[in-house]
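Journal club prep — side note

Before the paper discussion, L.F. wants everyone to see what a predicted structure for a comparable chain looks like in token form. Sequence:
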Amino acid sequence: MPASAFVERLNSQIAYEFGAQQQYVALAVHYDAETLPRLAAFFYAQALEERNHAMMMVQYLLDAGAEATIPGVEAPRTAFSDIVEPVALALEQERRVSDQIEELAKIAREQGDYLSEQFTLWFLKEQIEEVATMSDLLRVVERSRENPMLAEEYLARESPGGQAADPTAPPAAGGAI
């Protein structure tokens, strides 16, 4: 059974992941309303990824015989002044999640909960990719502030985040969708 401090913190992380999912849906809807379909599609995909991260955490707790809680989440931010603000918010969110996952790994290690520490390693690797992708996208939208179609062209050409599923990813409760 995982250390109780880890279980408590992982349940909190599930809330953060579902909150990130909601925020990414809000960003996607914002871009959809602005008729920026590539940016919208990118964030709809990010929302699904965050949902799956939460469900991976749920599955880990179920497999480990620990209680998994499904929390409510805070309403996401929905109003933005330009195409840059949503991506800047997303990068800030990814950096915060990176810190949270590092804290989870630290708790597991301090508690001598090596199985839980091992579980967090995939998420640490994932966060490096997420921060890098969002950092790149932020640079692109900053340069495209006056012509959002340049950001759309970048996404059509480069398709960040569109790689195949990672076979080393933990299983998600209910199966990854």
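L.F.'s comment for the group: Residues 4-158 form a domain with the Ferritin fold (CATH 1.20.1260.10). Keep this in mind when we get to the figures.
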